[in-house]
Write a structure and sequence with these properties.
This protein has 395 residues and is mainly beta. The protein folds into three domains: 2-73 and 181-271, 2-Layer Sandwich (Alpha-Beta Plaits); 79-150, no CATH class; 278-392, Immunoglobulin-like. It has five helices and 29 strands. It is globular, with a radius of gyration of 22 Å. It has an eight-stranded antiparallel sheet with strand order 11-10-4-3-16-1-18-17. Strands 22-25-20-29-27-28 form a six-stranded antiparallel sheet, with no helix packed on it. It has helices spanning 34-47, 151-159, 165-168, 237-244, 271-275, and strands at 2-8, 25-27, 62-72, 75-79, 84-87, 96-98, 104-106, 112-114, 142-143, 147-150, 169-171, 182-190, 192-193, 198-199, 205-213, 217-225, 250-253, 258-266, 281-284, 289-294, 298-299, 312-318, 323-329, 334-341, 346-351, 355-358, 361-366, 369-373, 386-392.
Amino acid sequence: MLKFTLKPYDVLFFGSGKPFNRGDVVNSSFPPHPNTLASAIYSKLYHSNMIDESVVNNPNIINAVYGPFIQKGEKIYFPKPHNIYGKRKQKDLEKVFIINIPEEKTSEKGTSEKKFKLFDPSNTNKPEGIESLPVYIGNEEVEPFNGFISTEGLRKYFNGGEIDAKSDIILYESNNEQKSIFKRESRIGISVDSSSNSVNSEDALFRVEFLRFLEDVKLVFWVDFDLNGGIKNINEHQKLVEFFNENPKSLKLGGEMKNVSYEVEEDDFNKIIDDLGLSRLIDISPDKGLKVVFLTYGVFDEPIGMIKIDEFKTLSACFSGYDFIGINLKRTKQRKIKRALPPGSVIWLKSTTEKTLNNPTFIVGEGGNYEFDFPKGKQEFIGTNLVLLKEVGYV
C-alpha cells in the first residue's frame, strides 16, 4: 500500500449526490467520498500516460482506498463512531458519553429480557430490520455531534477506556481553532452540463460553500494498487513511490479540480489495527455479538431499511441519518446516485454460524447479498464500506 498525505493550496469543494434547486446554497460534502481520492490518483496516472490501456481485462488499477481521514498536527483522526454523544446544549464539548444496546438479563420465569425500567423497547417506533435501539443509561441529557476521534480515543472506545473530549475529539467546526478542522467560505458557482462540460444556460449561477482547511489540517488515506500490469512498467510499490515523488507533486481534487500538494510513502494501513488494540482476525460464533464501525460511507442497494449481511442478524444500529453519494459514469454519460450510511455509523450484528473474519475489512456484494470480504473486480463506489470489527459479549 501507499500512504498519501494531502495539503490543500486553496479552498476545496466536495460534491455529493444530493439535488438542489435554484436559490439553494450548495454545501460541500464532508468528509470527501473515497471515490474522489481514487479519481484524483487515477487521473494523475492517466495524464502521465502510465495506464496500459492494452490490458483490457484489468479494470482495477486501484484495488481499494482506505480513508480519507484527518491529520491534525502529528495525530491522525478517524470518523467518530455515532454512538459517542455529547452533553445536550453544551457550548463546548467537555465530556462524551457512549450509548449502547442494553445487555440482557434473565427473569424469574427464565426468559431473557432487556434491562429497562422506564419503557418497553417493543413499544418504540424502531426502524424495520432491527431488534432494539441503542440507549444511554445515565442522568445526563445527551445528543449527537459531528467530529473526528484520535487513534488513542478510538482505542479507548473499543477497549472500554474513558475518552477525553478535550484531547481525543475534534469537531468539524468550532470557534476554537485548536478543536476544528475547517472554516466555510461562501462563493458564487457556475452550473456545468456534465454531458458537454459546458456552462449550463439555465440556472447557471448559484451560491457554494467551500471548505478552507485550517493550516495544520491535512487529509490522509491509503491506496492498495493492482500491480498486475495495468500501470506501465511498474510491478512493485517502490517504483510507484518513485513515480509519485516526481515533480510536480500535486493532484487535482474535488468539484472545482483544485490543486493539492501531497507526500507519499510505502505503508500498510492494517498496522492501525495494532494501534487500536484490535485483533486482525476475529473468531465469530452464534453466542457472541459483533460491533461494526464504518470508517467510510456505507453504500448498499437497498432503498430503505437496514443492511442485511449474509449469515448475520442485525440487532441494532446508530447513525445520524443518510447521506447521498454520486458518481459520473463516463461511458454512459450518466450520474449514479446512492443513499449512504455516513462514516462513523455503527451496527450491531449476531452471527448465525462460526467463522473467522479479517479486521479491518469491507462489506461487499450486490443485489442484497452482502458479506465481509475485500473488494474484487470492477467497483463503482471504490473505498466505501470500509469497517472495523469488535467482538462484544452481549447480544
